[in-house]
From TrEMBL:
<protein>
    <recommendedName>
        <fullName>Chalcone isomerase domain-containing protein</fullName>
    </recommendedName>
</protein>
<keyword id="KW-0732">Signal</keyword>
<feature type="domain" description="Chalcone isomerase">
    <location>
        <begin position="58"/>
        <end position="167"/>
    </location>
</feature>
<feature type="signal peptide">
    <location>
        <begin position="1"/>
        <end position="18"/>
    </location>
</feature>
<dbReference type="Pfam" id="PF16036">
    <property type="entry name" value="Chalcone_3"/>
</dbReference>
<dbReference type="InterPro" id="IPR016087">
    <property type="entry name" value="Chalcone_isomerase"/>
</dbReference>
Amino acid sequence: MRALAAIALVLWATAACADWRGDVQSATLVGEGDFSVFGFKLYRAQMWSERVPVDFDERFALHIIYARGIKRERFVDAGISEIKRLASVPIPADTLARWRADMLQAFVDVGPGDQLSAVYLPDKGVRFYAGDRMTGEFDDPAFARAFFGIWLDPSTRAPTLRRQLLGTAQ
């Protein structure tokens, strides 16, 4: 009986901590902005962090609220394409294949109003959420940096959104 109670407690605690906000409890909203393509808003992104300026020495979260439906395969294709474009040196094919598989596991199809979040775990990796449900955790610091670089790298395709997320937009 005691073992069943312990298992129930672990399952309850896991479910209670599954929300991405639990990973960055003292974080505040640093900045937010919309991402649009050809005038069509795709999503609103928010950066949550305990520290400003945001850096890769502390936990932070990228939270996205979608305005349109997007298939997970499209997310993955676009993400891998951007990671490759932003890389300072070519990324080995086997590494890209592993990252692609991780992204396919963690991402879900979204519709208007759906929310996806990613939490950066310093020196560890990244944790992904769909709504309040954790969909994947990957212990790969290089993947985490490359993934968040899509938004935070100075060479991002969305420099205005980057400044908004980092709280440096005028």
